[in-house]
Amino acid sequence: MRSEPQREGDERDDGVMPGATAATRAPDGDDQGVVAVSGVIKWFDVTRGFGFAVADDAGVGDVLIHFSVLQPHGRRSLPEGARVETLSVQRGRGYQAREVVAIDLSNAVEEPVRPPRATDRIDPVTLIDAAGDYEGVAVKWFNRLKGYGFLVRDRDDSDVFVHMETLRRAGIAAIEPEQRLRARIVDGRKGPLAVSVEQD
């Protein structure tokens, strides 16, 4: 099952999505088509500058939240679980927030901020010479918000850590559970680590 909608990068599509149900109309009559939509952030990609909220009204679906509408609140991103109240408009593949009216972080899952330690800054590129040949793996899971995930090794079903930067170096923008890849793997401090990947 896909964990993210198939409409990334579509924040400026001005078509009309058939079958969407309208939420409560905003009181300003000059803003035809603007609806008040509340929901909870399910993910936000800080690097790409947008994310999605699951609307309380199931008929509305997911609402695209672009970082630009967060700037009046002094933010460029939102953590998973944050509740938002928006004024949204319908685009080609769903609703997009035109304005964020309120943000509630009481149930948000904020990532802990900790200073980097030298031992945390291992660059997988420096380990490539110690890696074996490419071997078959399958994606177990990948969390783009956290920037990492795990692969499963074909030969022994062991878990292999993979970082988002390793995927980016391979020109891979996103991966999904059970997707087939090939990886060069080393034994890292905390277990097997993919230092290079390629499409299967």
The succession of helices and strands, N to C, reads EEEEEEEEEHEE
Beta-strand segment tally? 11
Q: Which strand order spans the largest sheet, edge to edge or round the barrel?
A: 2-3-4-6-5
Q: Which class best fits the helix and strand makeup?
A: mainly beta
Query: What ranges have pLDDT less than 50 throughout 5 or more consecutive residues?
Result: 1-30, 115-121
Structural shape? elongated
Helix percent band: under 10%
Largest sheet: 5 strands, mixed, barrel
Number of DSSP helical runs: 1
In angstroms, what is the radius of gyration?
20 Å
Map the helices and strands:
Elements: E1 24-25, E2 35-45, E3 50-55, E4 62-66, E5 83-91, E6 94-104, E7 135-143, E8 148-153, E9 159-163, H1 164-169, E10 180-188, E11 191-199
Give a written overview of the molecule:
The protein is mainly beta. The protein is 3% helix and 41% strand. It has one helix and eleven strands. A five-stranded mixed barrel has the order 2-3-4-6-5. It is elongated, with a radius of gyration of 20 Å. The N terminus is likely disordered.
